[in-house]
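Below is our example:
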Amino acid sequence: MRTGRGHAGPSRRSFTPGQKLELLAGYEQAVAAGEGGAFLRREGLYSSLMSEWRRSRDAGLLQGKPAGETVGRSSVE
């Protein structure tokens, strides 16, 4: 696949808030069963992404937003 700059390479995946919550729940179940790494490899995800999504979930940024509304970042104070 070609990007807008003429470089060949994979496109970046994006996830809806619902998909993030679903994948995060699956990851947390896999971790409890000692299979967290296998889950990440199977889904092509990184543990740092799970940490970011967990912070967003805990801050309430992944729920209650109408479809199409921008989800912002939590503020660090």
